Amino acid sequence: MELNGMNLPGLSTARGCYRLGLTLTVLTALFLVLAIGALGLIGAGGEADRPYLAVLAVGVVGAVLSRLRASGMALTVAAMALVQVGVPVVAYLVGETDGLSRGQLLDVVALTAMYVVLFGAAAWLFRRAAELA
């Protein structure tokens, strides 16, 4: 595949796209676990961050149900991105974010957007792998 004249060899085969998608998904999930445990995405960590484990649960269940096939993994990782968006929305609606300043709320939005972009890129890679297979 070429992008603005650059040859991207990893994206030209189904195997390369699948490997990149899987790597990006695993690294993003690990980064999410680290952020939840060490930093806390909503507040200083603790109970408000526990619902983020649903993102990981969706990933594990989806991977098992799809048997790690590229098309199923594309849907799984897209669902992970949707759940990632839903967690801070639900936290806001139930009042878990009441003690946060405006700047801290913007941090939550920015971090959520970052994870959604990473999971979205992984979903695209899986979709591309399914199309090339």
Q: Provide the spatial order of strands within the biggest beta sheet.
A: 1-2
Q: Strand portion, in percent? A: under 5%
Fraction in helix: over 70%
Structural class: mainly alpha
Oligomer: single chain
Termini gap: 15 Å
Q: Indicate the low-confidence ranges by residue numbers.
A: none
Description:
α1 (14-39) packs antiparallel against α4 (102-132), α2 (53-66) packs antiparallel against α3 (70-94) and α3 (70-94) runs antiparallel to α4. 72% of the residues lie in helices and 3% in strands. The chain contains four helices and two strands. It has 133 residues and is mostly helical. β1 and β2 form a beta hairpin. Strands 1-2 form a two-stranded antiparallel ribbon.
List the helices and strands and how they pair.
Layout: E1 2-3, E2 6-7, H1 14-39, H2 53-66, H3 70-94, H4 102-132
Antiparallel strand pairs: 1-2
Name a few traits of the molecule.
single chain, 133 residues, mainly alpha, two-stranded antiparallel sheet, 4 helices, 2 strands, 72% helix
Please provide a brief summary of the model:
With 133 residues, the chain is mainly α.
